[in-house]
Amino acid sequence: MIKENSGKFFRFKLDFKLGYGFAEVYDFTDIQSFDGTIVFVFNRLDKEIHTKYAVENIRSSGIALGPIRLYKYPNTRGIGSWKYLFKSDNFIIEEPNITKSAQDLAPWIYDWDGLKCWHASNWDLKQAPDYVPYHEVRCLETRILNASQGIVKKFTMRILIDSRKDVSDFYDLSDIGNINMFTQLVNTYYPLEKTKDLIKLIPVNFKTA
Prior knowledge:
Blueprint: E1 8-13, E2 20-27, E3 37-42, H1 55-59, E4 63-70, E5 83-87, E6 100-102, E7 118-120, H2 148-162, H3 176-189, H4 192-199
Antiparallel strand pairs: 1-2, 1-5, 2-3, 3-4, 6-7
Helix pairs in contact: 2-3
């Protein structure tokens, strides 16, 4: 882990002017150069900007998303930039997290529970993966790379869902990018029955599985 780049806290704007979210970023690119940037998003949602923040007040809200892979470290300037707040040397992880994967995962499959080749990343590479039912790895994140804007979109979608709002009233769920973010979110952070209900928001013409 590159300690000087890890434990850094950022504030970002949610879509649709819904407020501000908070993230903590870790840099494992010394171990995994391609997908070593990892982010946690917290449950805290502020409607306004504050002048001071504290680590304990952000972390105590709990983790809403993550650890999620970023394709690059968050940008602090320009469109879609995140505001750097401060750094903590009291890390919540010391090494990259275990992830999930499935050889039969495809963008047009929206209910991941039906896939048969799920496994965790900590399998013995000298042997075949130990395939498990999806419920055994459901809470794990994938190694799918996300842009900072994608993280914002996922958290905004989660806020909408948890507020009992219809995501399709805010995001066009006929757009493949939005579908991907939505599918990744609901299949990881919600129970199966809730996920099946949420998937119904995707227009029928786009449901191929």
